Amino acid sequence: MRERSRPRGRREAGGGRSAGGAASPRRERRGVPAAGGGRRPAMEEGAADLRQRKKQNCTESDKMAPEERNKENSKLGRSPKYMLIQRFAKLFFGCLAAVTSGMMYAVYLSTYHERKFWFSSRQELEREITFQGDSAIYYSFYKELLKAPSFERGVYELTHNNKTVSLKTINAVQQMTLYPELIASVLYQASGSEEVIEPVYFYIGIVFGLQGIYVTALFVTSWVMSGTWLAGMLTVAWFIINRTDTTRIDYSIPSRENWALPYFACQVAALTGYLKKNLNCSAEKFCYLLVSASTYTFMMMWEYSHYLLFVQAVSLFLLDGFALAQTEKVHEVYKIYLFSLFLGYLLQFENSALLVSPLLSLVAALMLSKCLQMNMKKGTYLSRLLKIMYIYLVLTITVTLNFLLKMFVPHKENEHLLKFIEVKLGLNTTKNFTMNWLLCQESLQAPSQDFFLRLTQSSLLPFYILVLIICLFSVTQVIFRRICGEPLKETVKLEDGRIGERPEIVYHVIHTILLGCLAMCLEGTKYLWTPYVCMLAAFGVCSPELWMTLFKWLRLKAVHPILLALILSMAVPTIIGFSLWKEFFPRIMTELSELQEFYDPDTVELMTWIKRQAPVAAVFAGSPQLMGVIKLCTGWMVSSLPLYNDDDLLKRNENIYQIYSKRSAEDIYKILTSYKANFLIIEDSICNEVGPVRGCRVKDLLDVANGHVVCEEGDSYAYSKYGRFCHEIKMNYSPYVNYFTRVYWNRSYFVYKINTVISFQS
Predict the structure, then answer these.
(1) What DSSP assignment string belongs to 663-697?
(2) Contact 304/262 with Cβ under 8 angstroms?
(3) Strands 679-683 vs 619-621: parallel, antiparallel or unpaired
(4) How many CB atoms lie within 10 A of CB 267?
(5) CA–CA distance from 218 to each of 213, 236, 274, 320 (Å)?
(6) Is-contact 227 218, C-beta < 8 A?
């Protein structure tokens, strides 16, 4: 008994010393603002406490941490050396699991791609046909870079490109964001891979490797939030099982988001660590540098990246607006945004879209509002009233700045995007072909019930909703306490049950809600939302703090809440993991073992004919998707491209699509010759399209845009004195044969030579 009583005495004494040791810094913190208040401007007094906290994290906390750990270890009878080994082992195995998960996912994608397309047994032409639409354009420029005599010459030809679209010289690097292709070509040539691996394997290998980094970053984010790498394993499992809704890698390997989103995931992982409380200086600097590098890289990889960063900036603005994070940290992230926008503007050939982006307007408004605000976080009634006015002030300045920038900065980029949003929200109606065609795209419509059903079958959606509700209620409680003047705790312990006081958790809650609102409007944005649904749900079920927060509300007395929270944080993810393994692992293995066949003989025959029979200087006209494949497989010039960020190309696409409308042969001839086209390709799949939605077929949209449809009493009637051009031209009668001569056809395609000399014959 005596031996047992001694440690107890030591614990009491140690506890007293700890309490006394903590009191002195607290008195110092209270004294610092009062002593320095006369020197600081009044507008910075409200943030003084948070600044002092940040300084303390880098000085006092680093010095006191070893002593507190030694005291804690002595309580448990463990030596500091033992605890150091335990921490190192946890970190080592966690990192090993994260890297292994990413590598296995990359190998899985490579194996699945091989089984789906039989890639290794195909000829080069057949491999290139698997790249469809805009993916074909991106890969074609990668090929051109490798064929150039030097990298500098290749870059010059891309920035002054007049061999892709007829009668148009474009800066392909700026307009199509070809920085991924520039990097891939440099790596391929600098690494001496020409004799080791084919260019196409090197290219898709980089993309699959980035997807592995994507998964690893999600793993680390969930691990940092929950404290256990079991959450990372569950995140990866849910991500792979819901691959249809988490990534577009199956359908479009070279798409810009497949290159960019892995960097954004790394930025989110670093930002999660950066926002944590009581972070030592070394870890904070590392996270800050990683956030800076990944933010800039992400902005360079995708032309729409600044919109996603705008959503993130709104999340941080709300986080700081409710005083749930250190203001200095949040404003450091704002500075990263400004630096990335400035550097991106310069290196993207003075891209005006970045100057008129909502991200720049919001960050500028936040920085300006910081200079104008006074006494914001002192806990008085006036400060709380000013806080509400502060949020209103930021929103007003943001809208005003964006309006002024768009007035004075010449820009044409993404004007069609604003028109699309107006029509999508019902603020305007239009008969414009391009707008209606975009509205009919599946990715720009609301998600279907199948999407929610898939997430529910994998148990992801139910657990996400549970975690989101608990975190949301906890955050609401914290906001209410802040409004009442109660300060945040320096360190949130497990027994406190206050998961809503952790700034990184609040950020992810707000971020997923905003991304979820986007996903509910546009199905294409589900690829931005669903990965973080996997991460947040996995964090929640593996976090003892979340279960403890729930038990605090329920006021459990029969069972010790801390013990039960620890048990559930291990048992629930284990049960979920076993159920997912039992149900979905056989399906995944079946996918990898099953040989699928992707073969399009008609397209192969068409490309072969073009390479053998068409003149080198020929210009082809047809649907933009087919033109992308022709450019990749043959290198011939085309009249349009499947790109939707340029008004001139959008107008070209609409005009070329008139070959499927009810227009005269003379009208079509004038349109095609205005773009110097020599050959016309009619696709039978578009001409005889039978779509699930009648009003969304290309020919239906053209009839509406051309006024060939009359609506009376809810019924629509087609009216035109000409037949549908794509049907009539196949009949080989005048006047069609006067303007066009059929030179090749198969089951899917009809190729017509556009006559330079018109012969009028009966």
Answers:
(1) --HHHHHHHHHHTT--EEEEEHHHHT---SSGGGS
(2) no
(3) parallel
(4) 25
(5) 9, 8, 16, 24
(6) no
What is the predicted pLDDT for the residue at 279? 85
pTM of structure? 0.86
How far apart, in Å, are the Cα atoms of 208 and each of 248, 589, 640?
12, 19, 30
Beta bridge partners of 750: 682, 745
Query: What pLDDT, on a 0 to 100 scale, did the predictor assign at position 309?
Result: 96
Task: With beta carbons less than 8 A apart as the criterion, state whether 594 and 114 touch.
Answer: no
Amino acid 481: pLDDT: 82
Give strand pairing partners of 710.
717
Please write down the HEC assignment for all residues of 178-190: CHHHHHHHHHHHH
Measure the CA–CA gap between 171 and 158, rounded to whole angstroms.
6
**Residue 202's pLDDT is what?**
94
Helix axes 199-226 and 80-117, enclosed angle (nearest 10): 140
Question: Long-range contacts for 110-115 (Cβ within 8 Å, ≥24 apart)?
Answer: 110/204, 110/205, 110/208, 111/592, 112/250, 112/591, 112/592, 113/204, 113/208, 113/253, 115/591, 115/592, 115/593, 115/594, 115/595, 115/596
At residue 149, the 3 state secondary structure works out as coil
In this prediction, residue 759 carries a pLDDT of 60
Distance of CA 253 to the CA centre of its chain: 15
Structure tokens, 327? 């203001």
Residues of the chain with pLDDT under 50: 1-57, 59-69, 71-73, 75-76, 762
Cα–Cα separations (whole angstroms), residue 85 to 55, 65, 77, 89, 371 = 29, 17, 15, 6, 47
Structure tokens at 36: 């320095």
Task: Write the pLDDT tens digit of every residue in 302-358.
Answer: 999 999 999 999 999 999 888 888 888 999 999 999 999 999 999 888 888 899 999
The answer to whether 358 and 310 are in contact (CB under 8 A) is: yes
DSSP 762: -
**AA identity, residue 485:** G
Tell the burial category of 111 from Cβ atoms under 10 Å away from its Cβ (0-12, 13-18, 19+). middle
**Residues shown for the chain:** 762
Find, among 77, 71, 57, the residue nearest to 17 by Cα: 71
SS3 per residue for 81-95:
HHHHHHHHHHHHHHH
The Cα–Cα gap between 346 and 352 comes to: 10
pLDDT at position 425:
76
Distance CA 311, CA 305 (A): 10
Which amino acid makes up residue 371? C
